[in-house]
Amino acid sequence: MRKLYVIGIGAGDPDQVTVQAIKAMRRAEVFYVIGKGEAKRELVDVRTAILAEHLDHPYRIVEIADPPRERTVADGDYRGVVLDWHDRRAALLAEAFAAHDGVGAILVWGDPSLYDSTLRMIERVAARAPLDYEVIPGITSAQALAARHRMVLHEIGEPVHITTGRRLREEGMAPDGSTLVMLDGETSFTGVPCDDVHIWWAAYLGMPDEELIEGPLRAVEDRIIQRRTELREVKGWIMDIYLLRRIDRDY
What we know:
Blueprint: E1 2-8, H1 19-27, E2 30-35, H2 41-54, E3 60-65, H3 78-99, E4 104-108, H4 118-128, E5 131-136, H5 141-148, E6 160-164, H6 165-171, E7 178-182, E8 197-203, E9 211-216, H7 217-235, E10 240-246
Parallel strand pairs: 1-4, 1-5, 2-3, 2-4, 6-7
Antiparallel strand pairs: 7-10, 8-9, 8-10
Helix pairs in contact: 3-4
């Protein structure tokens, strides 16, 4: 039975790779990387740099071109579009696994449990052919955001609602507690109507171009939008995350 490690490697800082992750990487002989094209080549380069730093044995890197995903969702069938994309990704991974021998590994940005499709794809592959896979947790961007802003994600005894930019636009902030927003390509915080909301925002967490902005939402949202636009133009891609919280005290 083929062995595969699904390894969380943190939010971008090579020092966030855990000892457990390094041990798993050292057991692997083939590393599968789903590439996002030249515009996001840096995401692949970070993974290869991590391997070069921590491995002292020969290994192979198999890069798989990410199949295009339909961004315009007809009739609100968002789930169907994503599932189709996952199926096509899983088919490509299955082909790659079949073509290469040895213990394999996939390096996952952040942690495989949070807004990442890798495990869903692996489940599809395992349904087609025997596959023994093990999951190694990593530092999430949510943890990195809290650490870099030196803050706690929730107030005392209150919840944290983790959602996406799309859901924030559709549903707004959670009625109580804090709202952590990921996968927001459209600066959805601009649609939040409350004037008493504070934002903690970050882009490229753990990377050399890391950017942090925090403050009352209405006071800093234009600055975030401008800086986000500038960074995206320079790098060709952006990966950001933010926490929203209603504040009942002055800053």
